[in-house]
Structure of Metallophosphoesterase domain-containing protein 1:
Amino acid sequence: MTSIRRPKKAPNGLVFNSSPPKRHFDHSSPPDDGHQAKRQRKISPLPQLSVKTRILILSDTHGVNALPERITQPIDVVLHCGDLSQGGELDSNRTTIALLSSIDAPLKLVIPGNHDLSLDEKYWSENCKPQASHIPSAARAIWAGKEAQDAGIRLLETGMHRLVLVNGGVLNIYASPGTPVATRGVDWAFGYATNEDIYNPAGAGISYAITTSTPRTEIPDHAQIDIMMTHGPAKYQLDSTRDGDSAGCPHLFRALRRVRPGVHASGHVHGSWGVSRILWEGEGERGSLPDDDDGCDDGVEGRKVVRVSDADGVRLVEGVVGNEGVETLLVNAALMGDGGKLDKLPWVVEMELPLMD
């Protein structure tokens, strides 16, 4: 190898420096692109896969025109679980639309309840006078009208719904206005017999049930449901009347246990306003079901404490609800109290929902 000698002194007084040159950067001269890309790869955050979503739940307002307190909390979606009116009156429906419009939220989802007679065409045709046959279509028109649409209000039909929210979250919800009616009980809207199962597929119900489910009312096996939204509660789950009777539906509990949603929202039983949390057996695995599932403790490993706090016109359930099949938050949001007054507050639940692909 040929060696090269560097002269001790450069011509014309220049001095050689054998150390490598230093590189200086300022704001007008950024590092090379490759170096910057490496830095960006190191500090780039992971992509967001879900979004925290605030859900306000209320029920049984029965045509009252104002909530107990003004709601100032930010809300992503409102759920009204039925009994929008006292007896199906058209003016009561309009009043409830005005009440929902007062809540600042981009989307309000609504189902009828047993008092909403004019929204049940079958009930109306069988029980009301022919000269009032136009009332059901008039009631539906109110909920499909401009005032409701401008307020983001949507009356849900029975069945499964997949909704993309304004915040980008995807909400999978099952809706049903049905409630069981005793054999000798008073006939109401959207009623079914206590031994009638409208929720479970044939072969998946309780042994003594008569399966009358349809493709619309049936909750499929292994359905991924974030929220089950029904007017009535499940059997023994926030369903105690003031007389101590259990007014919930055992077939609904069967479906609840089978699909294990993150939240079950309901109303109907005014005396059982509140929240509870079920811990299911099997660590999220939807196992085999017994023939007789009375909804008392079958499949339930235990209960988990639910911490709540007051927050500007609502009761806030603390913590974020997931949907892994391990537990279900039960919410009875019936606001109606004594004397025709709303004396309870709506509930607010926070859920982690997946973002739309």
About this structure: Helices lie at 33-43, 90-101, 121-127, 135-143, 146-150, 250-259. The mean pLDDT is 87.
